[in-house]
Each structure stands twice: as structure tokens, then as C-alpha cells.
Known about the structure:
- The chain is an alpha/beta fold and 479 residues long.
- It has two domains: 3-251 and 452-472, 3-Layer(aba) Sandwich (Aldehyde Dehydrogenase, Chain A, domain 1); 256-441, Aldehyde Dehydrogenase, Chain A, domain 2 (3-Layer(aba) Sandwich), CATH 3.40.309.10.
- 38% of the residues lie in helices and 20% in strands.
- It is built from 15 helices and 21 strands.
- It has helices at 38-53, 61-77, 79-90, 94-116, 157-169, 183-194, 210-218, 231-239, 265-277, 297-309, 329-344, 374-377, 393-401, 416-425, 459-465, and strands spanning 3-5, 18-22, 29-34, 122-123, 134-142, 145-149, 173-176, 202-204, 222-228, 246-250, 256-259, 289-293, 348-351, 364-367, 384-390, 405-406, 408-412, 430-433, 449-450, 453-454, 467-475.
- The strands form five sheets. A seven-stranded mixed beta sheet has the order 13-14-15-12-11-17-18, with helices on both faces. The chain has a six-stranded mixed beta sheet with strand order 8-7-6-9-10-20, sandwiched between helices.
- Strand 2 (18-22) and strand 3 (29-34) form a beta hairpin.
- Helix 3 (79-90) crosses helix 4 (94-116).
- The radius of gyration is 24 Å and the shape is globular.
Amino acid sequence: xxxxxxxxxxxxxxxxxxxxxxxxxxxxxxxxxxxxxxxxxxxxxxxxxxxxxxxxxxxxxxxxxxxxxxxxxxxxxxxxxxxxxxxxxxxxxxxxxxxxxxxxxxxxxxxxxxxxxxxxxxxxxxxxxxxxxxxxxxxxxxxxxxxxxxxxxxxxxxxxxxxxxxxxxxxxxxxxxxxxxxxxxxxxxxxxxxxxxxxxxxxxxxxxxxxxxxxxxxxxxxxxxxxxxxxxxxxxxxxxxxxxxxxxxxxxxxxxxxxxxxxxxxxxxxxxxxxxxxxxxxxxxxxxxxxxxxxxxxxxxxxxxxxxxxxxxxxxxxxxxxxxxxxxxxxxxxxxxxxxxxxxxxxxxxxxxxxxxxxxxxxxxxxxxxxxxxxxxxxxxxxxxxxxxxxxxxxxxxxxxxxxxxxxxxxxxxxxxxxxxxxxxxxxxxxxxxxxxxxxxxxxxxxxxxxxxxxxxxxxxxxxxxxxxxxxxxxxxxx
Length: 479
């Protein structure tokens, strides 16, 4: 029997539209979700704004820490249920969803540490005539109402990344989960409330249409907008924000990897295969483009293909599955069309390349797709790795940089000078040396550059974004 999720907007009435949530693997109806219309959005914003504007209602640091500590316990206690739920709605294989769950619990603990280590600074005074007899310090306060729009690919951890820092910083938050994977968000919000967070401080909205979603994001009561999703939507919404609203955008990348002639392939290639095919490639920093020196390119491509063919594709709730479904059937077809176009233009297919079902696509490795192929110029967001041959590393770097996206990248080499040269020359916010592009811990900065995003993610950085520095200046003759 499908579960039904009611509104998480106190005082609002559901719209006539109900959202059906189905499993991407087999189309099973998992749940129905109530949605809000424009009136419901106004109710949510009115509630959140009233909370923030009445400073007597603000949650103290002690209260926030207690809520987050209890939340970490509740997530651990409910982990098995949350993992199965997430694997069904999002299609990420069970083994990887278990990792995501552990990471999300650690993220909540990271939020607690943000509160414990939060402090202002003293601004130098008394150093000239203008600043004589003065003391100045800063104090951090919440920025205001946070509106977060989330993506489908990490339905547990992304909610922690957006809601956790908002709670830690003391901001009322309204979160709109992805239509494909809203269930984890509703379950986590319910746990936050169970942990002691008043319902009005974390409201969850699924909307009846795009106009309602836009009304939520662009309302002048929104102080900070957090967006994880497609570049087209993110940049469009940013252009419509109310005056004064701040934002952070996290979009996609193309994750270039340079494999030098002296790289330890036995170490490197299993890492690259996992990072390219993990969650069917539906990760913004998945390994997508691998530039291998011409002396090793065939071995690199063939070994990646062998590793890919050994991966099991299928039911994400099976512990034996390595690659689950793509989120929508249309995405499976899009990936297939891009692969076929590259092959028609001259790429060599070493494995994969044919749909397994309407929802599943196998690990696919292409050797030397032409530079003008769609797959060479855009984020694939599917289980496809393209391997390109290079002779001179600066040529590889130029080709890696020759796109309007810049996020995380990598270089594999035993030579420190090669590594440092790549680090300096690659257009990226992070360069991994002898590690894959999808490496991440949640306290490190995580930033898309150019069309890949705006601002810096990572829990401490988001926590900082959701606060303001408020200065106090004291003037006294005793100073």
C-alpha cells in the first residue's frame, strides 16, 4: 500500500494536485504527496518570516545543539528504513545509499561543531585618532528565511547539507525536495521535528506547478536561496531573486582526469571506474572525461571497460547491484542517443552502449569521441566514461579547460612536478592528485566555477553563508 505524505506547512491547505512518487527501477508507486499552491507558499513564508522577525523566538545555541544531537541519534536508529526508502525512490544502489546515510549522520555532527566553533572577531581600534577610545567586535546572527531547492541524486545527504546548516545557524528553512525523490526529505523533516525542532522552523513543500515554485524562490521575504540542480534552472532562478537575497548554486561539471604516462594504473583505474559508474553516473563530479597518454591510452580504456562490464546493473535494493537505474526513462534514452551520436562520429565503443531496459543503462566506455560530439561538450549524467588520447600534457589540459564548466578535476602521476603543473593549469576549484574527481568530505569547500555554480558548498561554508556578521562598536573614555 503506497504511503501518503501530508503537507508540512502549518496552517496551509493542500492544493487539488497530488504528486505520485514512483520507483525509477520498476515504476512501483511508492507514495502520494500533497502539494501546495500559491496560497500555501504564502502561508509558509509568512510563518517563517514571523519566526525570524520575532527575535524572542530564536532558538539558542544550546537548543540547536540539543536538537541536532538528538537528530543524529534518530537517524542512526532509523537508518535501515531510510536507506531502503531512499534506494527505492532514487535508484542509488543499496551499498552506496548506506555510505550516504553514514555520511549524512556525520554531516549532522559537523553542524554541531559549526555551532561550537562559531565566533566573531575583534576589529582593531585605538590605532589612530579616528578609532581612539573605541572597541569593536563582530557577532554572528542568522541571515533570515532560507529557501532550499534540492536535487534527486542524494536524497538523504543533500537535505542534511541544506537543512542542517540552516538549523545550526538559526534560520527558519523552507525546503522543496526534487519531485522524483521527495520522500527522504519528508522523513528527515519528521525526524527533525521529533528531535525537538518546532515544526514551523523546518517546512517542506512540494508544489503544484512551476509558477508556485518560482513564487517561493523569488519572494522578498527570502534572505538566502540554496539551489542544487541543473544550471539552466539555477541561473534562471538567480536572475529572479528579490533585491538583497543571497544565494548559493551547485550545478554540474564534466570532471576531467589526466592520466600521465607514469601513473600507477593498478591503483588508478578501479578508482576511476567506481567514480564514473557510481549511481549510474548521476553525480555532478562523476569521472566523465579521462585524458590518457598515448602510450597507455588503450590499456586505460580497455581496463575501464573490463571493470565496467564486471559491474552488476539492476535492482537498487539488492546488495549485489553496482549500478542502478537512471532517474527517468527519458534520461536513459538521452544518454543512449548521446552515446550513439559519438559512435557515429567515430568513437570506439569498448563496452555498453545499449539500453538494458527503459530504466537501466550499462557501464559504457568510449575511446576518442570527437571533440564536437555532444558527449564531449556536455555533462553526461549517465554511466559513461570517455577516454581521450594525448601526447603533450598541456594539450590535455587545454582540452580539459575548453568548456564552460569547472568543478573538481584530477591528475594521476608519480611525478610531483607533473602534479603541480596540472594543479596550477587546470580550471577547477579542486584538483585531486592520484584520487578520483568524486572524492569529497563534507567539511571541505565544494564549489562549481563558471557555469558550474556560485558560492562555496560544504557544511561549514554553507553555515557561514546563512549568517551575517553584525558589528558592535563601543566608545568610552575609559578605553
